[in-house]
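Milestone 3.1: sequence recovery, worked example.
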């Protein structure tokens, strides 16, 4: 699945995330966040090499339960899941290499 470029209209329920079987990256952020915008090219480059990894772009903020359930404090936060379980996370990833390493952990 290619990288998602738009935030989901509705955030999924945590139980649906926990039930995911395929490797998945949850990207928590906001469409107006400068840090979130700046990470898009490096995330896209890393994701290109992992076409089997699902990518969900989730708008976070006040009243958003999913981000709170993952203890998201800064944007963007990338949560790497395997079989619905968090394997690792990156907060404001600095480069493609760090994202690629995290992707290898769920899509080796």
């Amino acid at each position: 699945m290619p990288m998602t470029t738009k935030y989901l209209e509705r955030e999924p329920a945590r139980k649906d995330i926990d039930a995911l079987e395929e490797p998945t990256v949850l990207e928590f952020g906001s469409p107006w966040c400068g840090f979130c915008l700046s990470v898009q090219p490096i995330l896209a480059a890393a994701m290109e090499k992992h076409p089997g990894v699902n990518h969900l772009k989730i708008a976070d903020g006040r009243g958003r339960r999913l981000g709170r359930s993952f203890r998201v404090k800064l944007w963007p936060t990338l949560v790497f899941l395997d079989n619905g379980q968090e394997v690792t996370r990156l907060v404001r990833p600095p480069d493609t290499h760090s994202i690629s390493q995290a992707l290898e952990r769920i899509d080796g």
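The mean pLDDT is 96. The radius of gyration is 12 Å.
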